[in-house]
Amino acid sequence: MSEPKPPTPTTPTAGDTYKGWLFKWTNYIKGYQRRWFVLSNGLLSYYRSQAEMGHTCRGTINLATANIAVEDSCNFVVSNGGAQTYHLKASSEVERQRWITALELAKAKAVRMQDESDDSGDEFCVVAPVSGQGAGSHNSEIQSTLRTLSSKVEDLTTCNDLIVKHGSALQRSLSELEALRVGAEMGEKIRQVTERATLFRITSNAMINACRDFLSIAQMHSKRWQKALQTERDQRIRLEETLEQLAKQHNHLERAFRGATVLPPSLSNPNLSIKSGVSGKGDASDEDDDNEFFDAMEDPTGFITVPADPKYHRRSGSNVSGISSEMGTDDTSFDELSLASNSESLPPLELEPVRQRRTRIPDKPNYYLNLWSIMKNCIGKELSKIPMPVNFNEPLSMLQRLSEDLEYYELLDKAAKCHNSLEQMCYVAAFTVSSYSTTVHRTGKPFNPLLGETFELDRIRESGYRSLCEQVSHHPPAAAHHAFSEKGWTLRQEITLASKFRGKYLSIMPLGSIQCIFDKSNNQYSWKKVTTTVHNIIVGKLWIDQSGEIDVVNHKTGDRCHLKFAPYSYFSRDVPRKVTGVVTDKDGKAHYVLSGTWDEKMEFSRIMQSSKGENGTEGKQRTVYQTLKPKEIWRKNPLPDGAENMYYFSSLALTLNEPEEGVAPTDSRRRPDQRLMEEGRWDEANAEKQRLEEKQRSTRREREKDAVKAAATPEEADAHEAGTTASEVSDESAHPENYQALWFEKINDSASGETLHVYKGGYWEAKEQGGWEMCPDIF
């Protein structure tokens, strides 16, 4: 079904409904985007597509108060004074002129109607025109009422002027009367005063009667107008509720349709059911052509998936689309394929008592704090340099949040048992996505670690792994993380956070690399994190979104998995918080498709055949993958009971700050402000947080002094000692940070070509011996 062409009258009239495609500039994606515009009843509205006209309007400008300006041959601007501004571009100069003419005519009509109805303040209430005699009688009744009220106002104005005039005259007569002596003139003056008093009383009575008439008419019609206004409000509320319900039902039906069982297809079948919601040459409309596998961003590399031919389910030992027989071609789950191929027997279990971890922390207190009073002076600044009270925090440090990435360590355990690198890549990619599942409700900011702060997570008995984090730099803040498992994998990462507060939202951009190395195959994987955005910072309920792209690379084999995190949109036809990915080999041939959501689950499908499909939106060609039935590879663990009162912590997060014996003096569990916050003593925690930050600044100044002295000659050192002021020393940008990490060292990784801090050893040995003498006093 082709899109209807916009009307192109030579000279549009003021009563026309004018529609058509225009390109609109948007700051979110930095460019012009094609949008469907509708001009009707003095309102200019736009939609993402024609299909949205029935349920979702993206924006509306009332032309009665708008300014229309031409920029060049194809561009023009429509603005209503600053609150809304549309920068638009037509396909040609002729088309632009048609739009300008239609907009000017519609604006003139809107201004005229606004003046006639004297209702310029209600620019959002649009009453449908009434046809026939009803419209004429309705308008005449309104005009008659307005004329009556206007005449009464004029009467009130006249009476007011007369009251002022006669009142002044009466006052003068009374003054003259007081000055007269008793005699012949007394009677004349009394008569004048009596006449003027009578005139004043008559005028006052007329004023009172006019006011009474005006109030009577106003009250009578006010009740009717209030009733009509309330009716319009109720209808608007019901309409909004209906639209919201329809949007939810539409989303539910879309998800149900995608998950429904379909008949065995082929690419030539016109009734082909496509998992991503994009239909072939069937009976669906072109509205679905925009619904690519990756989301509404219309990525040119988008793809769609279809169930593979049943023959691939029966064949074994074949080599279809470059997939070797050792990977299997039946519809067997990942666990069966990987674990069955690993004939090694598991080591005997050690019957040692496992420590019982806590399952609750004190409930979060309900403290009120004016966020805007703190954040209004911080717009555009680096978040790590903004002094924040603990009211915005959660009782965990950034080091502990990094350790939470290991909540789904089982994925790496399974990956370590894989004999095939492409299967292993799927597990690593699922582990990459799983690390974001704990953030969906976690709107609290973790504590910024102090320089030299550490955090250990020893789960060698329960889960077979140990983890260590250390804050290796303060400006910029950087944390190094190392974890190793008895199951044959090592995870290491160094993360530096760059964050900006933009007024309405907060963007957190993790910089740095994450690496995973498997001992048995010597495969080394690396990837980076996506951007985290916290919305509704000032007004509304806070919510978290993850968006961006990740490339997971196997540096040994050249395999690659490209993951895309689609930005969340309430009215999107796609699944919220969607993640999609394709696993390819070193030659770029696709072998697996991954799909799911970062807050719930991930599935994988093996690709049996691929081909170029029809052109999608705006002529972009998409790849069609025939896949086996999808299998679940990861699912989020349910939150513990009462998590909403415990900062939405997962079961693992509840145990991270639990006190433990034998940890280093620099461990985050020993941090006093964090402990006070967890116990609900926020005022004391704020005071302790300020003390620790000041102590860290003092330590930094001393370290910079020592660094300058060590690098200078004795004469230069004496001059510096005598001439350096406290403000110069405290300037954090004046000197590079002279700090050597205690448990990590910086190396150049030859496989990935990156420079990062890696664990140099010694921590767990020091813990066994209790030798913490080298640890700095940071708390």
TrEMBL record:
Report the coiled-coil segments. Answer: 229-256
UniProt keywords, alphabetically: Coiled coil, Lipid transport, Lipid-binding, Membrane, Phosphoprotein, Transport
Q: Where is the PH domain positioned along the sequence?
A: 15-108
State a GO cellular component annotated for this protein: plasma membrane
Q: Which CDD domains match?
A: PH_OSBP_ORP4
Record's subcellular location: Membrane
* Comp. bias intervals (Basic and acidic residues): 667-708
Can you say what this protein is called? Answer: Oxysterol-binding protein
